[in-house]
Each structure stands twice: as C-alpha cells, then as structure tokens.
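Quick one: NAD(P)-binding protein from Mycena alexandri, structure tokens please.
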Amino acid sequence: MPSLAVARAANAAWNPSYTPVGVFVGGTSGIGQGIAEAFARHTKGNAHIFIVGRNRAAATAILARLDKPPAGTPELTREFLHCDLSLIGNAKRTAATIIARFPRVNVVFLTAGEISLKGVDVSEEGVDRQMSALYYSKWAFIDALRVGLRAAAGAGEDARVAAVHTAGRGGPIDLEDLGLMKSMRGGMAGVRKLLPQLASYQDLMAEGFAERDTNISFMHNFPGTVDTPLLRKSPSAALRAVHYVRFLLFPTLMFRAMSISDCGEYQLYGLLQARPGASRAGGDGEDIGMGGEGDVHWGEGRELLWAHSEKVVGAVVV
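--- reply ---
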C-alpha cells in the first residue's frame, strides 16, 4: 500500500498536455469534495470542473476555493450542476448538458448516495429512490458520458471513471431479485442481504462497462472510514443522531478515520494508476483485485444485471 507521500508525488507527476474535464458527482462534500480539490490542485487549476449535486451553496464555496490557473490562461469552466440522483431522469439530463458543452470528458468520479432507514420509496419513475441514487443513476450517468469518454480515449487523453461504494465487501447477487426490492422489503434480514449485493452491483457495473469500452478505466472504490458528513445529512433522524456521537460509539474507528483531503489524494492516485478495463481500489488507492471469486454465477449475473439496468434506465425518457 502506498504512503500518502508516494500518492502525492505520483499525483504531482501527472502533467496532461491538454486541459482535462473532470465531473464530480456528489462533489459538494465529503469524499467527492476531497477528490475534486485534489484534481484541481494537481492540474494546477488548469482544468474544467463540474460539481454535480444538490447543495448549491456548498458547491459554490468549494469551487471558489479550488486552485486557480496561471494568469493568462483561457477561461475555464468551474460550474455547479444541480441534480437529485433519486431520479434517473435527472442523471440523464445533467450528463447530456455536460456532453453538449464538452464532447470529450476525462475524469468522472461518482460518490453520490445517502444512507436511509426509510425503506422502499418508489418514485414516479417506478424505481426506489435510494436504489436510484446508489446504483441506477450512477449507471445512467456513466452510460450518458461514455460518448465523451470514448472521444477522450480516442484522442489519447485520460478516460477514467470511478464509483465509490464498498469494493471488497460484496457477495453473491440474487438473480431472482434484480433491483433488490425483495431485500429492501425484508426487514433487518433483508438489509443483511442488501449490503453485500449493493457492493457487488458496483463491481459488476464496472465490469459491464469495461467489457464494452476496453480502452476506458472503470473502477469501484472503497475509501474506508473517512470523516465525512454522510450520516449528518441522512434523511433518517436516527442516523443523523449517530453522527454527533460517532466518536463515543466508534472511538477506535473514528480516531483512525482519514481526512477528506487525504482521502482525495489517495483516491486520485488510484484513479490515475488504473489501467484500462475494470478494477477496484481500497482506501490507499491500492488495487485490491476483482470480485466474484468462487461465485460460479458471477459472469451470468453480470450479463443479467446489465440487461436489467439497461431496461430500467432506458425506460426513463427525458
């Protein structure tokens, strides 16, 4: 595992000959904020940056603090795009806006998704809102940006995607419950089935896209414990309460938690080191290998989940 100094040095050595376009979905706080700041820092401000999320005030403050390009540099984009990913259509519209502005996209980092104990909450799209934010809208965002990623790769530029969840914590997926609606309605027993499957969904998403675009990097990352406001922003009052007593409830875990800034360095490191294809990274940006070991249905699950995701996302017309 690389030290923080090694990660910083590797990131500092990145010197693209073009002006990269970075899209940070969920970049208004926490891990997304950390990597957006690292991206701006190591491009010396010479980058087009979109922060996608729901909190305009937070995004505006982050954008104002990002490293600025040298004097005389042509005008660069520093923009917040409002997008509630509990609806797949919002992801599609926002991605289309980016592609209309920039036909080449180099870095896409998705951290959006909130933790809730609300249970099933089906939207007007016929999809559970939490599943949309955690999976379907990520899938839709990546799918809609692929044309820009392909153009970047074809021009010899970076073309890299990372989705944050819990890489390395997955388990077999239930092929009779694609979409996880049965698990979500199954109480605590369902939750225990839900969490490892959600992790595997992110693995299979990366693998599915990598099969279809072999010269683009698709990652699933697990940064580990990072001191972020995720619980404080949860719609569940119980989880918001946990945020304020987290050091009492989990002292060892929290005192070892990584800062947002250090996490950004490590995650950018992992993203820049990834080769084309599918991969997974841990908290230090290190490659942790691929999922599905010992699961004889993994390949079948990948194809069935891809077809399911295509159907759900494709059914939402914008």
